[in-house]
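Why does residue order matter? Because the sequence determines the fold. Keep that principle in mind as you read this record.
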Amino acid sequence: MSNRSLSGSGADCSLNLDRIGRDGRLSLRFARRGARTDLVRSSFTLPQQVLAPLAMDDGSSYLSLLNPTGGVLGGDRLTSEIVLEPGTHVSLTTPSATRVYRADNLPAMQDTAVRVGEGAILEYFPDHLIPHPGAALHQSLRLEMAAGSRVLLWEAMACGRIARDERWAFREIVSSIDVLIRDKPAWVSRTKIVPAVLSPELPGVAEAYAYSGSLAILADGFTGWPQLIAEMNQKLAAYPDVEGGVSKLAGDGCLVRLLAKSAISLNGVCSSLWAVGRALVLDLPPFESRKY
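Structure:
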């Protein structure tokens, strides 16, 4: 059984009929072709899928990753492998927020591995997670960067379905991020949120904030970190509903951590910070995400 899309062909699905539609695999490879980046290999099994890539005016490739089932279910196992060959420029996003549904038994598993070749650029800005009551998700991201590569990486989540007054009603969110530059650790992050054990609404935790986000900018050989950090802190100060700060990593990178009271503020501050990163690190104008 296979799946096909405009952007590639489907890989073979699991032979275990009980796991069809639960074990999703995605494999992408991008290569430089003259002045542009092309998607040269694409395979997937549902519930992993990609839309047709868009060729941007600056030669980069813009691609949306999606789950056509409408969300992530308990027991799902989703695996992604993405390779950017040297000199490529790729922007990855999602069409909308990712919903994580109730897990009665096993948590959903989502593992992503990305290799960014020499001099390549990756902009990875998926929409935020929305965990439903009882949801459980374990996710990991491993990012390997070669010499001269640059990455702008965003991750965010809501505390639940805010419109339904469901705050911190999920079971657990466990997340790990490992970024290596030239085989050396540049950013290692471990997060575990279990609201039943420690309420995020306690003083000194998330309190009244409903959204959290992190933006990591990693750039091998970049030297303008003081200016970048100063301008990002100025952008954060312009959002009264956002609390956050910027810090330099030990290696070639900086990290923004923030809390927001609304999705509008979360998306607004993300766009503002992203524009600063593109201008100073990539020498590119602001980018308007295309959600279609």
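Helices lie at 225-237, 263-282.
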